[in-house]
Amino acid sequence: MVYFSLAARNLLRRKFWTALTVLGIAIGIAAIFSLISFGESMQAEVTKQVKEVIIADLFISSTTGGDLPQTLATTIEKLPDVEGVSSEFSTFVRIKDTSFMLIGLEPKEIRKLRILKIIKGRDLESTDTFSIVLSENVASKDHLNTDVGNRIKITTSAGDKEFLVIGLCEDVTNFGYVGYIPLETSQKLFDKKDKITRVLVKIKNHEKVDEATNRLQRSLGNKVNIEASKEQLTSIAEITRQLNTFMVSIAAVSIIVGGFLISNTLMMSVTQRLREIAILKAIGGRGLTIIKIFLIEANIIGILGSFFGVLLGFGFTLAIEELMPRTFGFMQVSIALSYRALAVAIGLGLALSIFFGLYPSWKASKVRPLEVLRPSYETPHRNRIYRLFLRFLEVLAYPLKILLKLFPTAARNLSRRKFRTTLTVLGISAGIASVIAIWSLGLLVQSHVIYEIKSMIGADVIVSPKAQAGPQGGSGELPISIVEGVERMPNIEKTSPNIWQIVSISGFKVVLLGIEPESYQAVGAKVNIIKGRFLTSTDDRSIILSKTLAEKLLTVDVGDRIRIDTFTGTEEFSVIGISTEAMFGPPGGEIKGSVWIPLKTAQKILGKEEKATGIYVKVKDVNKIEETSQKLKLALGKKADIVNLGQILDQVKKGIQTFWYFFISIAALAILVAALGIQNSVSMSVWERTREIGILKAIGATEWLVMKIFIQENLLIGILGGITGIVLGYVGAWELGRGFSSEMGEIYTGPIITIQLIIGGFIFAIVLAVVFGFYPAWKASRLKPVEALRYG
Amino acid sequence: MAEIVETKNLTKVYKLGKVEVPALRGINLRVQQGEFLSVMGPSGCGKTTLLNMIGALDRPTDGQVIIDGTDVTKLSENKLALLRCEKIGFVFQFYNLIPTLTALENVELPMTFANIPKKEREKRAAELLELVGLKGRLNHKPDELSGGEQQRVTIARALANKPAIILADEPTGDLDTKTGTEIIKLIKELNQKYGQTVIIVTHAEYIAKNSDRIVYLKDGLVDREVYLTQRFKS
């Protein structure tokens, strides 16, 4: 192991550099490690939660979103692939202000595929009739405020029924608000004898879910829709996954910068040890041997970097675990050490060190013994490809030459070390580019969401019923008579009552909005029609669908007819228009789109005659909006919440910003690594030019002059890094923006890059280069001429 | 007697910017196996260049260098490294030891290149260091050794792979006369005891007088030769 000890001792000889490089790698590895393990834990948690309560592999429901005959369950159970089935009848109900999904389940003894995690009381049994198990969130203070032993009243078209709360079960993040009652009771309650809405299926061979699904679909025909249970895990898990992929790619940038750092440090090591390498070669060391020695060195750095990176990453992960639930309202995730993350981190560290160590090692192996052992006057030999490459660079860099002319000395010194200069510049630009790209995406998302909200709501003030149950269910309601009262108040120009409710179209959950076409537009709310037309006051069974819902999910077009399922039955509508995507909840989430119908029709089919769930208000003088809000609050205080648009936008902006700051802090890690790279690179050039500095000082250069030389070089590196960073950042922003827009189904017009962002990025690059290059420059200026001259 | 080194019309021209500077202008030299040869001459006469050519550290502009029957001017870089490893041992003026390795490890290094097993390597390195009088200083690093001691390590290293030729470039140039004499004695002893061919480049007469033959170079050509012994006079 002479080679190993040679490598190790050399690293120890330059403790400072080794430490710096290891730190750089460690930061990158830490970022990757923590992101992967965080993402995995998050996904595992969601999957676990759902798996614990649903054992089924598949869900079978009606293609049209209506009911299925109960006999279907028996038919399915007899199919060869099927191991077991469970039937459910579910519908939305509302008690006071709380809407929740009421699921009719087979009692505990028969039910095979769904487990209720009871935390108080007991599960449903076959002797139960008007008994209910509520998820904890429904029973909580903010909603029904009830407990085991209490009775709750459920209103149906057939009248009110009282249920005894026999148990509370754990919430499952993905499911929202739920209550469970016996299947038979729910069928009777809604007058749907022998009808079910969903069959849960467990298949025999777990590995072959897809094949089994195909066979089931063939034998059941296309009246039913078969969905794999894992597809139901979408929303949070899917978003987390997307988020993570993105963040990992940012972390990868910092890893690459870290790789440059390895390259730089090794190059420095090669330069410092030219003489040693020459000796090794003179006494018979072959090129491969030299490569081996340097690669071992790179590997030691890689291993140490991975090790500390994993430690650091673990700490970082724990920190995320601490912060996440509070910051983002995600569920509590307990983060376990992910072996995959561990393997990726360590593998990456090694691969990186080998990859980035190759060039310096190769350079070392090409050192010619004589050039070093004895000064020679021979011009260095360079092969043709290298010369061509240089020529190519020269052509490419022609515009730069003008810039370089501004700093002639600095430019000459930097171009003496093209490779290292390139690495350093790339390091800075990678950092700057990722910040610019992410920042720009943030702006795009923000403007998109704000535009979306503005055009959807438009109104200055929104009057809504108190205590909403949230997007999972509907909400409370207001008597429509309020509208007149509101309209008579001072500073009110126009009002528009509306209703919104979650409904199901062919099994897809959508937001249904009932609106008054004229007043809706008059208050400033908008529906962006891309095909067909908007509603008019004479429309009745007409509907507008959002783009993805219409084109991708339902595959209907203007002129087609669709059916909507409500509590009381199924209603048919004709599609008159298609609109742009409207953001109600995250992409990939549970809500698949929005539909608009006339208010009167909505009131009728939802059983909310003379009711509204919200009133949009336009004021005459926007400057007095606060005052008007206050007056509305006084007048309607007990019944309604008053929110003005500014408040909503502020909240949304805040939410988005929290998110983007987190992303940017990851990108900042890349910048940190780049900073280490600058420090490294400048120090190396000081070292190389010790003799030169000595000569300068010997012939009378002041400390300031020496420092100025190096500061000019740093300045130039900063300018180059800034420019390339901005260009790369623009490309990155373009790509990220395009991805986001296609996700939203919109025409992409390019990234939002403000002039501030460009100038900021540029200045930041320069400051970075100058600040981190300052110490080595100062060191250079303090060199004593006699000592410096003795050098080399 | 077998010829171990032969140069034929050996020419080397350095380019100094656009000016061509001839260092060797056609040297014809034959060295017998076991011969102790000194190369002398004024500064810039091409002594070191000649030594570097023979040591396969550099390629000639024209002519041939034949070592043990092989024309080294035609070998690849890798083959040259192998040749240096097996046939040639270098002793430099400034010792050129690897600073991070101990004396023992420095001597082991050429044997590592030759893939000699570790145990054997260590044993031989220890023996060699004992031979050059450094018993008990095996685990010292170069900066813990005096100049003379470092040069002894270099000699031990040069002997590691039992090379046919030892090339020494001003081996005593950085040492005081007393130490220098000791070193040259050691080299001569090795030459006589083990029959290794030695070629020394030197300025010092007291070194050169130990050899079998002195070759004087002048302006890149052999000026004259003087035989001090009759052993290899053909």
Quickly list its features.
heterodimer, A: 792 residues, alpha+beta, 10-stranded mixed beta sheet, 56% helix, elongated, B: 234 residues, alpha/beta, 6-stranded mixed beta sheet, 4-stranded antiparallel beta sheet, 7 helices
Sheet of most strands of chain A: 10 strands, mixed
Q: From the structure provided, what is the oligomeric state, counting identical versus distinct chains?
A: heterodimer
Structural class of the secondary elements of chain A? alpha+beta
Helix percent band of chain B = 25-40%
Shape of chain B: globular
What is the straight-line distance between the termini of chain B?
9 Å
Low-pLDDT runs of chain A? 325-333, 375-382, 467-475
Largest sheet features of chain B? 6 strands, mixed
Q: Give the mean pLDDT of chain B.
A: 86
Strand content of chain A: 15-25%
What would the average pLDDT of chain A be, to the nearest integer?
A: 76
Helix segment tally of chain B: 7
Relative helix content of chain A: 55-70%
Principal-axes shape call of chain A: elongated
End-to-end distance of chain A? 30 Å
- Strands of chain B, total number: 10
What's this model, at a glance?
Chain A is of the alpha+beta class and 792 residues long.
Characterization of this structure:
The complex is a heterodimer of chains A (792) and B (234). With 792 residues, chain A is of the alpha+beta class. Chain A is 56% helix and 19% strand. In chain A, the strands form four sheets. In chain A, strands 1, 3, 4, 5, 6, 7, 8, 9, 11 and 12 form a ten-stranded mixed sheet that branches. In chain A, strands 13, 15, 16, 17, 18, 19, 20, 21, 23 and 24 form a ten-stranded mixed sheet that branches. A two-stranded antiparallel sheet of chain A has the order 2-10. The longest helix of chain A is centred in the C-terminal third of the chain and has 44 residues, at 645-688. Chain B has 234 residues and is α/β, with parallel strands linked by helices. The model of chain B has no long low-confidence stretch (mean pLDDT 86). In chain B, the strands form two sheets. A six-stranded mixed sheet of chain B has the order 6-7-8-3-9-10, with helices on both faces. In chain B, strands 2-1-4-5 form a four-stranded antiparallel sheet. In chain B, 34% of the residues lie in helices and 29% in strands. The chains are: A alpha+beta (792), B alpha/beta (234).
